[in-house]
Write a structure and sequence with these properties.
2 copies of one chain form a homodimer. Chain A is α+β, with helices and mostly antiparallel strands. Chain A contains 4 helices and 6 strands; from the N terminus they run ααβααβββββ. In chain A, the strands form 2 sheets. Chain A has a 3-stranded antiparallel sheet with strand order 1-3-2. Chain A has a 3-stranded mixed sheet with strand order 5-4-6, with no helix packed on it. In chain A, α2 packs across α3, α2 crosses α4 and α3 packs across α4. β6 of chain A pairs antiparallel with β6 of chain B. Chain A binds a DNA duplex through α4.
DNA sequence: TTCTTGACTTGGATCCTGTCCATCGTAGGA
DNA sequence: TCCTACGATGGACAGGATCCAAGTCAAGAA
């Protein structure tokens, strides 16, 4: 996933130090950070970066399809850099941590036409809920 | 679902005019209102009702299992009075409206043990995303 | 290299959702 | 009818996210 910056440049993204830092923070590990956590990590390398810029950049990465937005608890949205490999989420109802899971079983049943109410479907999200070992 | 009030009374719920109005608003139709929308509708009948009361009452209805909390977009949570019949949600990415759907296909594959990371599972949520006819 | 310009960043105000708390009111049993 | 514990009130508060006017700068043009 370290070619994220290259892909962005290819698409004509104007590369600023702020955007680079945000992209690199997300690129680092596959945890699911909140916007504020991204801002905190980015600020370690670029202390003047503003929250608005982090929000803007995250929004752009989402609309470019490079990052997934995950809102699991009605609190802060989280950002998942693992957007190119379909997967699902396992969320702890206690502490809110998220794990990516890749069920090997039968694929999801598609929604039958008579249940679509005229919607044009774009995707399905599956969220497993439970308690992590620490919270149980 | 019009026996909601009866069920609540049975459970020893202290019945106040505020709680009655909130329950009746939810009981009305199977749309998925935000807390603020519930408050607005309740205030049409009981103008002095406060937001805190609506939040309290909704929270109690959720913990009684009479209403489901749905958070699909990281914005306002929505409340689904259709808590007694398992179903899934179809969400418009444009306007945020939610429809209940009842896929008839194969049930969801359960999460295999090696993918649970020690979590004790409590449930699965499935959310279909797309654009409604009006937003498409 | 320097210039130019429109896209990007800043930070503070503002909005929205939701919670908290001290005080007041009242449902329902005695 | 009276009591009292439970519920309602509303205003303060907190966190997440967005908006905006002003300043800055990346990158193409000359």
């Amino acid at each position: 996933m370290s070619d994220l910056l290259a892909r962005l440049r290819e698409r004509g993204w104007r590369m600023t130090s702020q955007r680079r830092v945000v992209a690199e923070v997300l690129d680092g590990d596959h945890v699911h950070l909140t916007a504020d956590e991204v801002h905190a990590r980015a600020a370690q390398r670029l202390p003047e970066i503003s929250r608005a810029t982090v929000y803007n950049t995250l929004g752009e990465l989402v609309s470019l399809g490079e990052v997934m937005e995950v809102s699991t608890d009605g609190r802060a949205r989280r950002y998942d850099p693992n957007a190119h490999h379909p997967h699902q989420h396992l969320v702890c109802s206690g502490c809110g941590t998220i794990r990516d899971v890749h069920p090997t079983g039968s694929p999801l049943a598609d929604l039958p036409a008579e249940e679509r109410f005229g919607f044009t479907l774009s995707g399905v999200e599956v969220t497993y809920r439970g308690l992590c070992p620490a919270c149980a």
